[in-house]
Design a protein that fits this description.
Layout: E1 3-5, E2 13-18, E3 26-31, E4 39-45, H1 57-65, E5 69-73, H2 91-106, E6 111-120, H3 128-135, H4 138-156, E7 163-165, H5 179-188, E8 199-201, H6 205-208, E9 224-229, H7 237-246, E10 250-255, H8 269-284
Amino acid sequence: MTKLNDNAAAPGRTTVRIPTASGEELEAWLYRPVGDESFPAVVMAHGIGAIKAGGLAPFAERFCREGFAAVVFDYRQWGGSAGLPREELSFRRQREDYGTVIGWAAAQPSIDPRRIFAWGTSFAGMYTILAAAKMLPPARSLRLLALAVQDRLGSLIGRPPLYLPGAGAPGELAVGSTPEALHGQELMTPKDSTEWHNRVAARSLLSFSWRRPVRRAASIRCPILLIVAECDTMAPTGPALRVAETAPRGELYRSHGGHYDVYEGGKSFEDVLRVELEFLHRHATTPAP
């Protein structure tokens, strides 16, 4: 059963608890436009190591003002959602969480199930570690792999996770250790009192490093918009560009600046919002205000 918190933390926002098949609940924010009709909706989650309180509200609030419901959630084991151990990333579970929240949204009377969009930042964070490994010297890549294997073996005998910083300075052993990483950490840190740890369980690196979404791009039949930074030092831009080229209905926008400049406070935030809203209105067939 979904539990509603009527004491919303922000105007127009309600906190909901969404059950999963594993029994662990997902915490989500529901933004709902004023009116009695069924609205198109955007289901949203953050990138690797971040939580919904770290920069997603400005996007959701703007979508809501433009006539879209928004459902912003934390993955299991992250943020306000349940699940142990904390801050462990799993490709399979996070993909399932997207499906769970989309299904929940489709069942809401105030949401039109035919007009639901999935929104993810940094491809929902699934491939950032692979990008970081490719940009690191081989010795540091091996150190990351060794720590990930050590952590996974420890989990088999009940040991707690070994954690890596999500962001670190160049030369540090972290998921992201480029000059851009610390700037991103500043933007992703929640501005309210929400607790957030700049860490990722090392075993997470083994969960998805072999995934190659480009291989399935040709089978994507729905419209898809990829926003790729012109100066990204955190993630490889090549795969995203190939998806945009290969997907039959793919669209591409090159944002100015780096990986984190798409967020509020970055140089491309307003431009990215404009492009996203144009895409949403066009494919939801709703008139832009």
